[in-house]
Amino acid sequence: MSGLALWSVINVVALIAGLAIYLYIVGRQLKTVAGNLETAADTVWDIKADAERIEPGLTAINTTGNVVAGALPLLYGFGEGIVVGATFVHDDHVAEGVNRPAMGTRRSRFMESVGVDIS
Description:
Elements: H1 3-84, H2 110-113
């Protein structure tokens, strides 16, 4: 057997071995993905079962929401009627200014350290 034929056989064997290793790794990853999908499918079925139990309550909630939504224009009209007669009276003794601490206002030295003049 010549050297060229020997190297050809070695190359073919290496190619087949590489493909076999690649297919083994891909198969293992696909098996992991299939397991995760099965778990996800079980979770989806559990959520569907929970949603089927909630559905009758949602129908009642939607009916109540429609009743409230239908009453909102009437309630808004009543509110407008109440607000028309109300006026705000400001207390003059409150208008003296902002409350100040007994020691006066404090200046921060931080602003001076960054070069900002706050005076």
